[in-house]
Amino acid sequence: MTRRYSALSLFKEGLAGQTGWKQAWRSPEPQSSYDAIVIGGGGHGLATAYYLAKNHNIARVAVLEKGWIGGGNTGRNTTVVRSNYYYPESVELYGLAHRLYEGLSKDLNYNVMLSQRGMVNLCHSTAEMEVGARTVNAMQINGIDAELFSPEDVRRVAPIYNFSPDARFPVFGGIWQGRAGTARHDAVAWGYARAASRLGVDIIQNCEISDFIIEGGRCRGVQTTRGAIRSERIGMAVAGHSSMLAAKAGFRLPINSYALQACVSEPVKPILDTVVLSPGTGVYVSQSDKGEIVIGGGLDRIPSYAQRGNLPTLETVIAGLLEMFPIFGQLKLMRQWAGIVDVVPDSSPIIGESPLPNLFLNCGWGTGGFKAIPAGGTLLANLLATGKHNDISRPFDLDRFASGRLIDEAAGSGIAH
Amino acid sequence: MQLFPCPFCGPRDETEFHYGGDAGNARPDGADVPVDRWTNYLYLRSNPKGAAREVWVHMNCGEFFVMERDTLTHKVLSSADLGGGHAA
Hints:
Chain A is about 30% helix and about 25% strand. Chain A has about 425 residues and is an alpha/beta fold. In chain A, the strands form 4 sheets. Chain A has an 8-stranded mixed β-sheet with strand order 5-6-4-14-15-16-13-17, with helices on both faces. A 6-stranded mixed β-sheet of chain A has the order 8-2-1-12-19-18. In chain A, strands 9-10-11 form a 3-stranded antiparallel β-sheet, covered by helices on one side.
């Protein structure tokens, strides 16, 4: 029976005809009460459960997922991991996530296929280069690796970009983060699920929340499609559906839900070994380990809960892709899809206690939740375990909207929403 | 391409429209508006899944109007002008 994944276990299982592999995580019946409940079996929810057990020794934890784990935005993003943000608060947050990602495969004993192939945010004009230099300076001062690229540097890492003299978006340089890259998104969900389950966490799929149990003004559990489950500590990490759960709990959030599309081409031979983002087209591109060109763009600007995109946005994205890489004009698109993202006015997440005591929030990641999964999990676990913020999560509390102390990364690092 | 009905111009491409927020989100008036009312007005949103009542602007004619829409199916239920210049 193989429990730990290693080269040796792979070899042994090869000899044994692959008969000893165990189910990666248990699927138990829900108990009637837990020390903590996490709503949402995506990356953030599963990571929260894992860090509750690992960092805080709280293992009587249930993760409640209405569908299947990793089936929401965790399985729908473009898998980019980076921490090229502007404000010190954001650097602390995304820097933590980035560092944890670097040790994640070892920590979870599960290969999340982190590939630090670097990412370049292009600058298309002299003015953008000045802003780029400001961003690079800010990142370096905050202790994050960053480099200001010349056009020659960009040509070195992305030679197939459109460098022709009549290009609509010429390259004046770029912001380079060498530690950025991609990770296998499903593996992040599965790895956290397996590691959490091994520490005693119950992962309960096909279990939708119908209501919160509220007694004495506090949240004391949830009503689900699989019965009532009680706990004094409930965390929610449900991305685009946060407003719906908030409505059941009796409060509103500063969130609008939009569809964010992505698409992949057929697999081709290796041609692009870095992540390229063009603010001019709003498009970013990488090549997966399987060879697919992975393409992401801007939001569909129509508030939506439909997990599919609208055609005009897809047309804009593809037009931008071909402007950046005319060579991709021959590619065939294989799949297109959308996830529902929770967009906040300052493009920064919300982490903290909700207006309903005992209920804690991890939401508002907008288009950038995947890269933050290890940090989102660590911080929500800390809140659930201690009831208190730490220095990293404190600035991201919901109270910043009343106090006006926003962390505006749309202005800071040019997030396009 | 979805068509949205502008009450002034008729059905037009969705790309000609811009979302303007929840309908009925009236700006607080007066000198001593408490912080939570400002927060409500400026930031907090209903963000419903299903039937929604929203303010939109048709950027070609520049008119604001109220559109009732389903945010899950994207079906448009109605659209109407704001009526007499009053806040929606």
